[in-house]
Every structure is written in structure tokens, then in C-alpha cells.
Design goal:
alpha+beta, 9 helices, 236 residues, globular, 5 strands, 5-stranded mixed sheet
């Protein structure tokens, strides 16, 4: 991690923790969000190698109405994240062929570097315009509107690379204990989903921010324990 990045992670992480949690060494005030109530610590999941990033993963489906409803909140949240926060999506299948069609289309488009605005546009097409795309050919037509070559899209969608990514993504879903969408996973360690203690999207993202702050502080502390980190942190 570069020295400047370390300083950003340390200061931003601790600031976020201070904002999210009123707890301090001088009081017995509880933290605002509790494991087992507002979020779950994932046990036995494969370790994610995140480097100097805090990785937030959204598990979603285009055919999930709540995933459509949360999209504006996701976009707003992404705009205010520091550079050490990395956001990614996993399109969930749950054994449904219609969901798999869109998942395969998403992975294909992502591999072909489709512009980010295509994601919201497809949500709008489905939920605002009420137009359902029922084949890979129709998805290829849609993505061609964002600069992707239709024939290359179709051939890529049938490739081993897409098959492998789809299988890998779906294997992560049960290992993370995800049973519904939308859900968020942070660094492969914490799962955040709606429940009676997390009754709104606003609260859901507050919990995400709280955990981002914890992970940012952990990254900074780990980097600070490395040889020479103390002198590097003191340099301008």
C-alpha cells in the first residue's frame, strides 16, 4: 500500500467509525449496529483477497423488484465512497432459468466492458417500461445500444470464460448464506440484508458504512504493523 493511500485509509476509516458509532472508551454506550442483529458474520466462507481495498458486493437480480427499488440508493452511495472502497455485483440465479439468462447477460456485458449506465438502463427497461427480454438475442440487441457488437456478445455469452464466472459467482452465494436479494457482502466476511432490525434501504447502507469503517481501520492497523510503517506514516 502506498504511504498516501495508507494515510487516507487510516484517517477515513477512523472518521467513518467515529461517525457511525457513538461508543468510546470513556462510556459504556453500545455500538449502533450489532452482529447477529443488523448484520451477520460469515463463517467458513473462502477468504477474499482484497489487497488494500474494502470490497462491497451486491447480490442482485434484474428480475427482483427490490433490487430495482434499491438502485437509486446504490448509485447515491457509490458517489460518496473513498477510493479504497471497491464495489462489485453478483447476479444471483437461485436455480431460476429466467434469472440465469440475465445473469449470463450481465457477466457477458461486464467482460466486454459495457458502460456502467447500461445497468440502470436495463432495470428501467424492465420495471418502468415493463418490457421483458426473453432471450440472449434480445439482450444482445439491448447491449448493442451501448456499443457492444451483437455477434461478439452472443459468442462471448457461450464462452468458457462466462460459464466459469457464472459458476464461480453462484458458488459464492450459498457460502455467504444469501437466501434473498438484494443483499450485500463486505470483504467476504459480513452479510447485510433486510430484516426487522434493518427495515429500510437507508439503514442497510448505514450498516454497510459502519462495517466499511471497521474494515478500513483494520487495513490501516495491519499496514501500520508492517516494518517501516511508523516512519512512513510520519512522513509528509
Amino acid at each position: 500500500m502506498k504511504n498516501s493511500t495508507l494515510s487516507i485509509v487510516l484517517l477515513s476509516g477512523l472518521a467513518m467509525l467515529a461517525f457511525s458509532s457513538p461508543a468510546s472508551a470513556q462510556t459504556d454506550s453500545p455500538v449502533p449496529y450489532q452482529e447477529g442483529l443488523h448484520y451477520a458474520e460469515i463463517e467458513g466462507a473462502p477468504v477474499m483477497e482484497t489487497g488494500d481495498k474494502v470490497v462491497v458486493t451486491e447480490a442482485f437480480s434484474y428480475l427482483c423488484t427490490h433490487c430495482n427499488s434499491i438502485e437509486p440508493y446504490v448509485n447515491s452511495w457509490k458517489k460518496r465512497q473513498p477510493e479504497y472502497v471497491e464495489f462489485e455485483r453478483i447476479p444471483v440465479v437461485f436455480g431460476r432459468s429466467s434469472w440465469e439468462l440475465y445473469a449470463r447477460g450481465y457477466i457477458t456485458a461486464e467482460m466486454m466492458n459495457v458502460p456502467e449506465e447500461a445497468h440502470s438502463a436495463l432495470m428501467d427497461l424492465l420495471w418502468k417500461d415493463k418490457k421483458i427480454l426473453r432471450s440472449m438475442d434480445e439482450l444482445a440487441d439491448f447491449y448493442s445500444g451501448f456499443g457492444l457488437d451483437k455477434e461478439k456478445f452472443l459468442s462471448t455469452s457461450r464462452s468458457f470464460a462466462v460459464d466459469g464466472k457464472l459458476r464461480k459467482d453462484q458458488s459464492r452465494i450459498p457460502s455467504w448464506g444469501i437466501r434473498g436479494t438484494p443483499a450485500f457482502v463486505l470483504n467476504g466476511k459480513y452479510r447485510i440484508s433486510a430484516n426487522s432490525a434493518v427495515p429500510s434501504f437507508e439503514v442497510m447502507f448505514d450498516v454497510v458504512d459502519y462495517l466499511v469503517g471497521i474494515e478500513a481501520a483494520n487495513l490501516a492497523q495491519a499496514a501500520g504493523d508492517s516494518p517501516g510503517a511508523d516512519s512512513a506514516a510520519e512522513s509528509p
